[in-house]
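Case study.
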Amino acid sequence: MTIDVPTTGRSLPQLQPISFIGADGRLTDTPTEGLRIPSDATLTGLYRQMVLVRRFEAQVTHLTRQGRLATYPSAAGQEAAEVGATTALAPNDWLFPTYRDSAALLTRGVPVAEILAAFRGDWHCGFDPHEYHTSPAATPLATQTLHATGFAMAAKLKGEDAATLTFLGDGASSEGDTHEAFNFASVWQTPTVFVLQNNQYAISTPLREQTNATMLADRAAGYGMPGLRVDGNDVAAVFAAVSAALARGRNGDGPTLIECLTYRMESHTNSDDPTKYRDTEEVEHWKQFDPIDRLEKYLRQTGALDDAGVEEIAEAAETLAASVRDAMNTEAEIDPRELFAHVYATPRTALAEQQQVLEAELAAAGHA
Amino acid sequence: MTIDVPTTGRSLPQLQPISFIGADGRLTDTPTEGLRIPSDATLTGLYRQMVLVRRFEAQVTHLTRQGRLATYPSAAGQEAAEVGATTALAPNDWLFPTYRDSAALLTRGVPVAEILAAFRGDWHCGFDPHEYHTSPAATPLATQTLHATGFAMAAKLKGEDAATLTFLGDGASSEGDTHEAFNFASVWQTPTVFVLQNNQYAISTPLREQTNATMLADRAAGYGMPGLRVDGNDVAAVFAAVSAALARGRNGDGPTLIECLTYRMESHTNSDDPTKYRDTEEVEHWKQFDPIDRLEKYLRQTGALDDAGVEEIAEAAETLAASVRDAMNTEAEIDPRELFAHVYATPRTALAEQQQVLEAELAAAGHA
Amino acid sequence: MSVETGTDPTVVNGETTTAASATAPTPSSVTMTKALNQALRDSLADDDTVLIFGEDVGRLGGVFRVTEGLRAEFGSNRVWDSPLAESGIIGTAIGMAMNGMRPVVEMQFDAYAYPAFEQIVSHVAKMRNRTKGRVSLPITIRIPYAGDIGGVEHHSDSSEAYWTSTPGLTVVTPSNPADAYSLLRESIASDDPVVFMEPKSRYWMKETLSLPVSMAPMNRAQVVREGTDVTLLAYGPTVRTALDSAEAGADHGLSIEVIDLRTLSPFDDETVSASVRKTSRAAIIHEAAQFGGYGAEVAARLTERNFTYLSAPILRVTGFDVPYPSPKLEEFYLPTVERVLDALESWDWEL
Amino acid sequence: MSVETGTDPTVVNGETTTAASATAPTPSSVTMTKALNQALRDSLADDDTVLIFGEDVGRLGGVFRVTEGLRAEFGSNRVWDSPLAESGIIGTAIGMAMNGMRPVVEMQFDAYAYPAFEQIVSHVAKMRNRTKGRVSLPITIRIPYAGDIGGVEHHSDSSEAYWTSTPGLTVVTPSNPADAYSLLRESIASDDPVVFMEPKSRYWMKETLSLPVSMAPMNRAQVVREGTDVTLLAYGPTVRTALDSAEAGADHGLSIEVIDLRTLSPFDDETVSASVRKTSRAAIIHEAAQFGGYGAEVAARLTERNFTYLSAPILRVTGFDVPYPSPKLEEFYLPTVERVLDALESWDWEL
Ligand SMILES: Cc1ncc(C[n+]2csc(CCOP(=O)(O)OP(=O)(O)O)c2C)c(N)n1
Ligand SMILES: Cc1ncc(C[n+]2csc(CCOP(=O)(O)OP(=O)(O)O)c2C)c(N)n1
Ligand SMILES: [Mg+2]
Ligand SMILES: [Mg+2]
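After joint prediction, the assembly is written out as follows.
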């Protein structure tokens, strides 16, 4: 009884997460599945960007605690996954981020004010997706994984040399859409990289109540797709794995699932209270795996970084933080009439009538 | 970096489908993962039931072609999966079937007229689920996999010695609900057996456009759940695998995915035209793997079955076919007022008013 | 079987012809299925970015044969069978549309659009607004809907109320082959996402016409029969019911105007209000249950806008507030000519 | 912040007390969140088959803390965190209900009920009818809904129209702590599946009352302020808007009656029609968009049933027909007291 299905490359990922630079800042001896450590120059760039985004996250979290933003989900602790994966993208590739991925947006070049527009409540998506080749950050979990797959399918059909990358969380991996995206991407062999940031929690729900699998990367085999587990706090490993997966995709070899093991150092959002569901010891424990510390150690060893370099980067981070504060001090212009402007491409009479109702209300209230 | 997740039993199913009795009616030398071939007595019972359901399918399909039923999806060719899996259930277990599984309903003891009620258009579900420990046959694909998981969870919480079994198709395996059911069942370790009848087609869509995986049983590993691929046309293998999985479940060891490789010999339903998407050669090819022929050969070899036995069973099948025709000759009583009777447990005034509208219409039209 | 009229129709031997465009071939008898098929074919031919995918739309040509022959003609890079997952279909269509494509996808039956509900409501409907118009999603979601075909459970739902109550969606439903062609082409060409609902029981309805044909624009309702006493509003499968009721009403001395809404969102207030102001009485007919059905919006807005012109409340002649029944009970559930006429009789005509 | 009244209320220092039952402890100040929490606790204590599960309802006690403390008190076999998948939550709840349980599940925000749409519409709503009453599904689906909390996209939807237009579902929404307690207990005890919609902006509203408390049954609307000129209909978050409007209207010499619908499906025709016949004018207020919103049903059925009593069309004062906006635009979207009063002024009072 033979059935015509692919039988190649059928295996489960190695148990040990792929990692180049260990928590101690030294090279590990973990097998790395043919991946190669990025150059010192690349790593220095990644270090710089991680320092910047960490400062960004801290500054925004601080402003949020002051009540200046409606809400904010920080990716503090996850800088290696955010920066490593996003930096691997070519300009023509598209990124499909989530609410947790402001660090990725920043890395993609989206201006601070445009990133924050959503969280300060100005407008749902503050930037032009076409300008930054970056989709609006998705809030409904896992839905963006399908957008990334469809986008990549269109690129493939058009013969474009572009791939897509989407982030998703350990929690989001349980949604039906994740399964459908893995399956569509693999059946269609789209150039899509699924970067699963396993930060151990979905709000309060720990990984062991989210899955009974040894690792989430084990899912890939069930779709005939390569799956990798990487140390998500080793930016070298993340960058190398994602770069290779993007190349695979552009080469016509289909999608890849990359599980990045990491940890959410902050609360879920500012309105969350993590003491209800995890110990401070656990958080302390994870500090020793910090992605920035280890890379700094490593680059100081190789000589790529010295006090002056570290200092310069720290200053750049302060400049960024200042620009965040500036952005927040500039009130965005809110035009209530825009409520009606973007709902349809084709104008609707009934909507114009409703706009008149609002305009009359505004006039009565003495609004501009 | 250690994460607290189970690491036991992490493997992909063997490539060769588990099988005891080959297409030639002889014992195979396929490894069977510790399963044991059922006794001749059990196999004879399974043979009998397969012959009955095949006759049932043929009779109903015939009546449907005559326009006597609204629609009918036959499981001809899939008797081993239908009968082998269903027979493994204890009376207290619950079955969660689909539209394709009338053969399973019959095996579960649901009377012919009650099975056919849905297809002749009398009422959605013609039988009492509690009486037969069998859920209404689900039409929205894959939705029933979650019901089976939830039912089993309740059984587990109550400490009941009951398991659930649900059928799903290769097409349904692509739906998000299937993923969610696998995951919930494995995280909760519910006594649930997922019997995936891979009959190579979802209506017209062939397996290779449904999945890029080597086999659908490969999905199980991604949930930390055992997965097996069995020759779905070998009733001995199906019965043994499902029995073992049910025992695992009742024993508190959680769910199992069993992929039964089989083939849909008939069109999808009577309104389908399979010549648009598959050759008759393919259908002919699959005839050699017929589940009934091979078991008859085998049981004649062991001496469990002889001409008289075969004859007696054939007669029982004719009796069943006659009872199908009888059932179809008895018009079910249709009371239009029942439209309103079962929507809510709590009566609604507005619905009573609408019933009066209908009753006035019926009276005007001279209805009883 | 009675036949509805299109716009500007000439009734020939009980079939309707539509003024053919200058270059059009000789008129022939065309089913709605065929008209839809031709609309898809012409859209594929005219615009490289048009793609068709979904469950069984390729080799099989769809369970209703609406996409028949298209895979063979345009190849499996333009028309193909997807894995079986509706959220996956809509979700990937969104991505394709973001990347410049115009996907036309099919939900096999309307109860099977429900797994895609989140993608439709939270993304398809909202992406344009979310991005201040920078990302548009020109997606056409074809949904065969409604009953009267002897379908088993889940095969006869009328889901229009879910879509019409979702801002951001345009909802279109033809009642005849000429409109089916014209509205589908317009939907595919639109930069707004369109839920295109095809009345299953009318798939086999025939009209004599020559394709391509261009009918009234999709945001306009059409008066398909003129009358002075009552306005009957209908769409999709119930346009026939309305026309039959008008015919029957004429025997009772009632002059009934019939309007085919054609597009449910936006609602053509101008055309419909003008009719209602003329007749002072109206009823809306649909198959879906009454409570919270689309007819509620129709009745509410017509009353708001024309209260002083009304001699009687707008009535709703609909399915009952129960799940769609099994085939043998359909006839008791569906709004019939008798139910329409009874409803009209319930008004106090002395008012 | 103003405070709405419950049934039979006594206003004490701006807070509302409700007649305490004989055995009840001393009244204290109770938020809606606390009342809901207590209803869940009492249901869990009274009935072993009641189970609570969903996203973050265990250790965290829910993102709104409605299930706070319940896991600790009843153990993780009664109250637990599920994997993150809404269709999975509803689908497994169906199976548990088939096996004799009364699951109470939470959808974290109402846009996150959409992934479960198929399970809710095709199964929860239809199982009883499908099986001729042999299988009932006593499931309570708690959905925090509506806006006015400064939530980012997808956190402020009002999805009631989807559920109310689905036959087979009962849809309940409290506007105050006493009703929240009483209606939730009744919903959990009901053999029908209930979509229980909790108005997020009212979670922190306080009332002085003693629990347990038993209010009017869930199929009854309540007149919460009497008046003679106009009836304002409201539910959940807009009951406060209606009461504030009545107060403001009084300054303009208008005597406004306010009805809290409490249950959206079924609709309490008796109570509401009686009021409308008395006042001859009515408006319905809700946050959701107007087109196809729940207000359409209210306006349509009140007009059908009370046409000759009406001096003016039933008005709908609602959100606009656009997706729910971002926080800084909420104030322009939401129906305000001013919008209500403007609407009432639009009527021709000379009629
Ligand atoms: C469909 C859906 N359900 C629920 C939510 C509410 N929610 C927002 S974030 C979150 C947890 C997500 O966890 P995970 O995927 O691990 O990502 P993380 O927040 O850890 O980055 C939940 C439940 C949502 N946004 N979308
Ligand atoms: C959610 C949903 N989508 C679509 C359908 C329509 N449909 C009915 S059967 C079928 C194919 C199912 O294929 P498979 O799961 O392989 O089962 P088989 O029919 O082969 O037994 C489809 C698409 C459905 N019933 N439910
Ligand atoms: Mg997480
Ligand atoms: Mg199949």
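Observations recorded in class. The radius of gyration of chain C is 20 Å. Residues 222-346 of chain C form a domain with the Rossmann fold fold (CATH 3.40.50.920). We will return to this complex in the next lecture.
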